[in-house]
Structure formats: C-alpha cells, structure tokens
Amino acid sequence: MAATTVDTPPFYCPIEPAVHPQAEEAERRALAWVHRSGLCRSDAERARFAGTRSADFYARFAPHADLERLWITACWVYWGFAFDDARCDEGPFATDPAAFASMAFSVQRALEVPGPLHCADPYAAALHEIGELFRASAGPVQNRRFHHAHRAWLTGVQWQIGNRATGHMPDLDDYLTMRLHSAGGEPTYAMLEIANGLDVPDREMDSPAVCALTEMAILVAALDNDRHSHAREISRRQTGQNIISVLMAHHHYSLPQAIEEAIALRDAVLERFLSLRDLITPRASAPLRHYLTDLGHGIRGNIEWGLHVPRYLTRSDPGPAPRYRIPAQTATSLWTDTPRTSRQDPRHLPSIAWWWKDPGF
Q1: Are 191 and 58 in contact (CB under 8 A)?
Q2: What is the pLDDT of residues 163-220, one digit of tens each?
Q3: Rounded-to-integer distance, Cα 344 and Cα 347, Å
Q4: Residues 353, 5: Cα–Cα separation, whole Å
Q5: Which of residues 343 and 126 earns the better pLDDT score?
Q6: Distance between CA atoms of residues 351 and 253, nearest Å
Q7: Contact 80, 70 (CB under 8 A)
Q8: Distance CA 11, CA 97 (A)
Q9: Rounded Cα–Cα distance for residues 175 and 177 (Å)
Q10: Which residues are in coiled coils (predicted)?
Q11: pLDDT for position 148
Q12: Does some domain include residue 361?
C-alpha cells in the first residue's frame, strides 16, 4: 500500500528548551566557512546549506558552549547534512554499497590524518579541515572519541545502503540497531565534549550506564527525525527504511497506526532515559553532569529544530534562506505531558533490552 502523509500527534518531551545566546553569530561564522570550503558552487547550493539551519541545530545541543568551539562544531553539522543528502540518500553512492564503502572510508581517513593533506574529493577536503579545527580546539581523547563515532556513523549508513541495494526491509530490532548508527547521532553527541571543552573521565564515559544513556538519546532523536522527515522522504521516494515503513511492513499497521506505535516506542525509550539519568546524575563528576544535561538538550533541541527547519518543512530544496530570529521554543500545542503506551515492548527487543537492566556505573 502506498504511504500518504498524515498529521502527527504532539511530542512528549518533559525537558526544558534551551538555545545558545550567540546562535546567530555561530551561524554567521559557520556559513562563512561553508562558503570558503569549496562545497558550494552555486547560489542554490548555498541556499541548501543555509536551509539546514545547522548552527541553530547545534546551538540547542550545546546551549552553554564557548562560541569559538560552537561555530566549529556547527561546521560539521552543515557538512554532515550535505554529505548525507549527496552521498547517502541520493546520487550514485546511495545504491552501491561497495562504491559507498570505498568513498566513505577515504573520507573518514581524511578526518583522521593530521597536518597538510591533499584531497581531490571536496567532501574529504572539507572534513579534513574540520578535523584540523577540532584538533586545535580539543584534546586527543575528545578527538579520538569523535573519530570513532564518525566511523560508526558511516558503517551504519553502509548497512542502510546495503539494504536499499537488495530491497531488504529490516525487522524492528535490526532497524533500531542500524538506526542507532545511520542517523548520525554518535558523532553529533560526541561533539558535545569538543563544543563545551569537557573532559569526561573514561571510567564514566565508558561505563554501561553512560553508554546506555548516550544510545537512548541517539535513538529518541533518530525516531523523532523519522517523524520529521517522513513527508519529505515520500516525495523523494526514500521511505524504504523508516520506523514507520518498518512497522507497516512487518506488523501490518496502517499508516496512522504505525505512526502512533513509533511514537509510543520512542516515548518508552525517553522515559527510561529520564529515569536512568536521574539515577546517575547525583554520582556523576561535573563534566559528566554537563554531558548528561546536554544529552537532554539534544533530544529537545532536535525536536524544536525539526519543527521549523526548511529541510523538513519543504518537499523540495529550500530557496534562499532569509535572515530570521532563532526561536527559543515552539508553540505549546505541539507538546504533551503524557507518554503513549507501546504494543512493541522495547524491553523484549534484544538489541536494546539491556537498557532496562541495571547497567552499572
């Protein structure tokens, strides 16, 4: 059955909104870098970059970051959305897993190599420059964590492209595993340490509890993005792998039922995130408390951004982006205080069931 768009219910998210007070200045600096990077060859491409509102996006994840670090992390978000559109969702690499793997890991290597590096691929060259900016702004541990997260993202995208190439629709558990990586949440959250100048001790960052909280924040944002992007993906015939399409295919839900179930599953994960974070925070170091707080800012900020960004509100490429005042939050009618109940109990899904056990800290 062909999918059609429907209005989605309000969001459950009992996390207060926040946005960096210098978000517009971060946007100005980041877009100036984008224009210098060589990635924009026309006014239409410049409008496409600006239309992602990437600085607004990351200003909500790290509302207390140092401006000098915030605009640099926003550069990666601009780069990431452009790379996702050009190399992951559309174009010749989007249906060729082998070609994507070769290209993606050349790009990854450009990120990891320090010092001068010639890159024929403009995406690799721009990412190398971002890597150099990160090395100048953060320590080796934070950069190593970001590199690891970036590689995991590209691996998840390769899995997604492999499914697309073979016409395979993953089941719910496989989809959630893939989406944890393919959504780009890992590098996005890994940048929190860089943006904030944090150094979370290994014993805390690598503890099962913090790993679980990070994964939950990634998945909640990924499933919210599935909601945000569903209409756009329908118009571009990209709905093969989306939480809504998975539930329709494997559980025979109608479109409204699939949307409701996707929201309920996401709400269950968010409730577990909030309860575990409340349990861990009193025992956390100051850097970890900051990180855990910004995990929540990322969840809320991703929703706020998605509700007004042209990327999701228009079915075609946005036109020139006018100057605008970045809003702190969206209308209250788009929010609910009541989580929904899922038929698909996430505690029975092997890939994420461990989040509901005592993960240890």
Answers
A1: yes
A2: 999 999 999 999 999 999 999 999 999 999 999 999 999 999 999 999 999 999 999 9
A3: 9
A4: 31
A5: 126
A6: 22
A7: no
A8: 35
A9: 5
A10: none
A11: 98
A12: no
The 3-state DSSP class for residue 338 equals coil
Query: How far apart (Å, rounded) are the C-alpha atoms in residues 287 and 266?
Result: 27
Q: Which DSSP helix (H) or strand (E) runs through 335?
A: strand 335-336
DSSP 262-278: HHHHHHHHHHHHHHHHH
Asked whether the predicted pLDDT for residue 110 surpasses 70, the reply is yes
Which are the contacts of 319, defined by CB distance < 8 A and separation ≥ 6? 47
**Does residue 332 lie in a domain region?**
no
C-alpha closest to that of 288 among 277, 298, 297: 277
Tokens 């697309």 belong to 164
What mean pLDDT is predicted for residues 2-20?
78
Q: Looking up tokens 């006014």, which residue turns up?
A: 43
Q: What is the number of structural domains in the chain? A: 1
Q: Indicate the DSSP class of residue 94.
A: G
Cα–Cα dist 169/172, whole Å: 9
Spatial separation of the C-alpha atoms in residues 17 and 117, rounded to whole Å: 40
State the Cα–Cα distance between residues 215 and 181, nearest whole angstrom: 9
**Tokens 């995130």, residue?**
273
Residue 1 inside a domain? The answer is no
For residue 247, give its domain range.
11-314+338-356
CATH of the domain at 249: 1.10.600.10
Which amino acid would we find at residue 350?
P
The pLDDT tens digits of the residues spanning 59-87 come to 999 999 999 999 999 999 999 999 999 99
> 25-61 pLDDT, tens per residue?
999 999 999 999 999 989 999 999 999 999 999 999 9
pLDDT at 302 over 70: yes
Q: How far apart are CA 276 and CA 129, in angstroms?
A: 37
8 Å CB contact between 104 and 158? yes
